[in-house]
Design goal:
It contains twelve helices and eight strands. It has 261 residues and is of the alpha/beta class. It folds into two domains: 104 residues, Rossmann fold; 113 residues, Rossmann fold (3-Layer(aba) Sandwich). The strands form three sheets. It has a four-stranded parallel sheet, with helices on both faces. Strands 1-2 form a two-stranded antiparallel sheet. Helix 2 packs antiparallel against helix 4. One of its GO terms (molecular function) is tryptophan synthase activity. Its EC number is 4.2.1.20. InterPro entries: Trp_synth_b_CS (IPR006653), Trp_synth_beta/beta-like (IPR023026), TrpB-like_PALP (IPR001926), TrpB-like_PALP_sf (IPR036052). It is an enzyme of class 4 (lyase).
Length: 261
């Protein structure tokens, strides 16, 4: 597969980042850096209360990504994705969201770069998390409960399973279908992909510098793991030193129990 194969769906620069196997570093555009300044760098906090509760000699630190305007790390990739789409002439973006973190982040980012956004939100989350839906709508996004009657994929699922409460896979199918049928429209994804992990490494790069300021280097890096954007963002900058043979930091990912999504 080549980057060009992804152009119909993703912004061209994001497609090139996805398939890039030659560049060790890719610069953050100045326009994105300016938006990052709203909330970055995020704090690296020593959890002294937890250390005391555990009665451990270990020094425990956590990287607090909740200080972003949308309350999560997802904005780290939403901003560059919106930016690259904007400069390439895209006017509309589609995406999916489960609990709403990614949809909220992309709604903020598309508002920042003056783009239109349609979010297919898993139906059960659409009903159970009205505040996330309200945030997306506040930033101008159209939020559609998935499955919906607005796409061929959604109509088939509703016809076959009228009481179906949705899944992330269904929402992705609807978002991609709409993107492929709408002029000047691209699709954006908030996890799993290489370019998303690339954007998220700003977390670990900052953490590395902050640890050095405290004259520390982690023995273990722990991160929660769903689609991988959070864990890769924190751990990959430390992993590169392991690969170079300079450190032996242990990486520990914590996955959720399998659950419908």
């Amino acid at each position: 597969m080549k980057a060009e194969d992804l152009y119909p769906l993703f912004a061209e620069e994001l497609s090139r980042q996805e398939m890039n196997q030659t560049d060790a570093w890719i610069d953050i555009p100045e326009e994105v850096r300016e938006k990052y300044k709203i909330y970055r760098p995020t704090p690296l906090v020593r959890a002294t209360g937890l250390e005391k509760a555990l009665d451990t000699p270990a020094h425990i630190y956590f990287k607090n990504e909740s200080v972003s305007p949308v309350g999560s790390h997802k904005l780290n990739s939403a901003l560059p994705q919106a930016y690259y789409n904007k400069i390439e002439g895209t006017t509309n973006i589609t995406t999916e969201t489960g609990a709403g973190q990614w949809g909220t982040a992309l709604a903020f980012a598309t508002r920042a770069f003056d783009l239109e956004l349609a979010v297919y939100m898993v139906k059960i989350s659409y009903e159970q998390k009205p505040y996330r839906r309200s945030l997306m709508q506040t930033w101008g996004a159209q939020v559609i409960a998935s499955p919906s009657m607005s796409t061929k994929a959604g109509r088939k699922i509703i016809t076959d399973r009228p009481n179906y409460q949705g899944s992330l896979g269904t929402a992705i199918s609807e978002a991609i279908e709409l993107a492929m049928q709408t002029p000047n429209c691209k699709y954006a994804l908030g996890s799993v992909l290489n370019h998303v992990s690339l954007h998220q490494t700003i977390i670990g790069l900052e953490a590395e510098k902050q640890m050095a300021m405290a004259d520390e280097h982690p023995d273990v890096v722990i991160g929660c793991f769903g689609g991988g954007s959070n864990f890769s963002g924190l751990s990959f900058p430390f992993l590169r030193h392991n690969i170079a043979g300079k450190t032996n930091t242990r990486l520990s990912l914590q996955n959720r129990h399998p659950a419908p999504n």
